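In practice, a research group might receive sequence data for several interacting partners and want a quick structural hypothesis before committing to experiments. The following worked case mirrors that situation: the sequences arrive first, and a predicted assembly follows.
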Amino acid sequence: MPENENRQWVLKSRPDGMPTEADFELIDSPMPSPEYGQVLIKSLWNSMDPYMRGRITSSPIGGVIESEAVGRVMESRLEGISAGDIVRGRIGWQEYGLLDVTSANPVNPDYGPISTSIGVLGMPGLTAYFGLLDVCEPKPGDTVVVSSASGAVGAVVGQIAKIGGCRVIGIAGSDEKVSYVVDELGFDAGINYKVENVSEALGVVAPDGVDCYFDNVGGPITEAVMEHLAMYSRTVICGRISEYNESEPSMGPRILRYVHSTRSRIQGFTVNQYPAQFEDGRAQLARWVKSGEIKYKEDIIEGFENCPKAFIGQLRGANFGKLLIKVSDE
Amino acid sequence: MPENENRQWVLKSRPDGMPTEADFELIDSPMPSPEYGQVLIKSLWNSMDPYMRGRITSSPIGGVIESEAVGRVMESRLEGISAGDIVRGRIGWQEYGLLDVTSANPVNPDYGPISTSIGVLGMPGLTAYFGLLDVCEPKPGDTVVVSSASGAVGAVVGQIAKIGGCRVIGIAGSDEKVSYVVDELGFDAGINYKVENVSEALGVVAPDGVDCYFDNVGGPITEAVMEHLAMYSRTVICGRISEYNESEPSMGPRILRYVHSTRSRIQGFTVNQYPAQFEDGRAQLARWVKSGEIKYKEDIIEGFENCPKAFIGQLRGANFGKLLIKVSDE
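A structural hypothesis for the assembly, expressed as tokens:
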């Protein structure tokens, strides 16, 4: 293959606060060549996720931006994987990448479109599954609140909670997103945090308090939910998109009085704690998606050159559903 | 008996912030008379505990201040309890009170001096026992931090953690208290929060982070500990003496970033969640006290008339050890 055929987005400068497009640089690099035990992947779908903001704080200047992607094997020097296979892995923001036995994850084509392997059947779906079921421990009849409710994680959280017999309240940033989770996903109520006072709204829609809170956002929304914790409630801290751009903690009302008075539990979480259970979780999610009990929505941005713009938009809440970069058609 | 022989401290006005002595009134009331199923108790030792500040926020003006006390049965109309028995219960700030089958707790005289039934072998000791062992789940080798370390709860927390093979760091408000927990109770290190920067000090004495935090104080001390949480740490929110006088939450740095990044757990707790296990816990504490593995210190104020002064002093951190009012000698 000719050289310098692999476009890559690298970190040009470390953002202070919200990243700008100038913090990223698009470079042309040589096509990577797989060594023994490696596969060469052509990226088809690149996943955009808020947690990546945290990685950028510690990743090297000049390095390719980290992310998960799904693509096709162009060349394999790894036993069990063949050219043409579909594989998922942490390829990052580049058109081609190398994976090995520890990082190349074959995608089961029976489960659905390959983009779902980095969405509803991938890290976001598994995050919802384990964070809700293992950490929040919802019981039928519980009131479950989820922030970023229409996002890749939140939408799955709410739908699993509905399957489990819970009352589900979604918090999102537009009337359109609230309508989506209530009218299309079957949540019981929704709150548009941009126009409503979240605490007052929760007083109306969760009069008996919040048994489970799946937190994707942190900041003032989380502080409002804390005022409404039910006795013995469980909160999972899964993400804090409202705080990712802060190098130092910002100030907010002290919330532990609510945790204390309600004997509640708050627990930090990432899905990487559950590797041994990934395949079980994925199989269950796939059954629910097939049966229609879990719906998903993808927000697709065409073109690899749009990675930074899409990512920054996501940090501002501009996406609606699972945000994907369509890197290539085939 | 003659009438108006029972002195009582009642709530005269609801304190806004730190209570003052003028918020309490000493009144003379008739001697109570037990009905069928009740016992008349003469209070000997009255327990002063920071949690009472919270009760005062919602208790009625003119009502006797709530508290636990231990006393002698003067007259019994309750089967199984006789005049002369020693009984513990929520008698409140009064010289005599009535208890019944649900509220009168016979004190086992084999366990030690009767004052211990409201201290190291009572609510504070059991709070330490269950809060540490059930919520913090310490393992040998863990680093355990306890605030209000020389107090009735904190001193027991640290000593149980030492018995369990942990490294124990106590935070207290004077050099004398720090010396006590290190030199007399065997803690591994102590921090005087009034003169040291708690976060910097923890960086030195807990370089590998804090696995268990037993929180009695809330506020800035707790926020400093959060900066040092180890991966998968467990915090029990048992008290928040620094916040009890606030009607609205004060502002502090947002701490959930630390909970998230370390996958830690924070849990609210009161000992009242464990009634079925109280006697087991008490028996274990009594064994440790008898063997000398757990030491205790009582801060005794003579005279019932000093209840408000002693309580206000406690909220300011003036006591050193379990604070008791000696109501009567016999």
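Before designing any experiment, note the following. Chain B has two domains: 6-119+296-326, 123-272. Chain B touches chain A at residues 215, 218-219, 222, 237-240, 243, 248-257, 259-270, 273 (CB under 8 Å).
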